[in-house]
Model the fold of this input.
Amino acid sequence: MPAPTAESELFDSHTPEEAKVMRPPRGFAWAYNRRDHEVEFPYDGRFYQVPAHRAVLLPDVVARHGRKRTVEKIDYVNRRVQRAIVALYHPSFGEVNDPEFGEPLAGPAPIELVDRSQTDNLLGVRSMDANGKPVPTTAKVINVSGVTVGAGSEFS
Done:
């Protein structure tokens, strides 16, 4: 299958069965929406929409980002995640394909109840500074006051 040339061709949706048969071209990946409603995610100042139970061909970095942005539930004990968007990559990209590709999710999206009173970094993942040295991640509370929201209401 030749690489898409027009933006409209890039975002045509397909069934997961069609996507599995059509190998993604180099530099692209199939992004499959496991939910029964459209899912959208931002990347590089643009929003990408994936129709319900459909697969769209996206640049591989965009599909990987969408996969990361649509995590719905994290199982900290078994170190597994549930995602709304899963991906099927070109073999040269070096990412592992999601085994859930083509398997829809049933029911509403879960509500994750996590106690972040002791730490906001439950897995101890470190960010890197500009020199590539690890630094711990922390959340900050930002107080906002005096901002008008809607029709003259105050937000504080």
Observations:
- The radius of gyration is 19 Å.
- The helical segments are 7-10, 16-21, 60-69.
- The longest strand covers residues 28-33.
